[in-house]
Amino acid sequence: MNYFESWNEAVVASLQNMWAKIVAYIPELLGALLVLIIGLIIAHGLSKLAQKLVELTKVDGVISKLDATKKLKDAGVKVSVSALIAWIVKWFAIVVTLIAVVDILRLEQINLFLNDVARYIPNVIVAVVILAIGLVVGQFVHDVVEKSAKTAHVTKHTADTLATMAKWAIVIFTFMASLAQLNVATSLIEILFTGLVAMLALALGLAFGLGGKEHASKWLAKTMKK
Fold first, then answer.
1. Are 114 and 165 contacting, i.e. CB atoms less than 8 angstroms apart?
2. What is the pLDDT of residues 3-15, one digit of tens each?
């Protein structure tokens, strides 16, 4: 009987202790829920604000004129820098809100993970901005090279080739810079960048050596005479 009473008292004490912890935890739970609701509302508002600000820069209009964007649009894929930035801003705000929520609930491991995610999101934003600028600059250089070549009375095929090469060189370098910003295969990007520069140098050397050897020999002859 004494054993039974001891066991009964132990169970009651455990239930009372658990109930006390639940009651003490309710204010934290309610506070976390309130922070979550407010954070989601703020995230939605910041997303709309970011989209409006990016739309004011008219970058979507410039991107939509690119050939690659037109092809993606024909395939049913809509490219919108403003929508992408707004999406990133919204999720950054949501992650920050979740960090506050798990901090209130004292969930340390989840808090550490979300902090890592929050620190990585700015890299994504910078990478998107770099890529967008690269696409715009690439198209601008394409138009400049094409018009300059036509002004110099170069054939249309040659002008188009030079303009396309200039544009894609900038786009490729920009894409590599974006991947480097995201810390994606950094060593591989360095190798590819070195190989691309070496390839261009070799191509220019061969082009000059094979296609311009007569002009080179004449220039060397005049230099020797002088």
1. no
2. 555 666 666 666 6
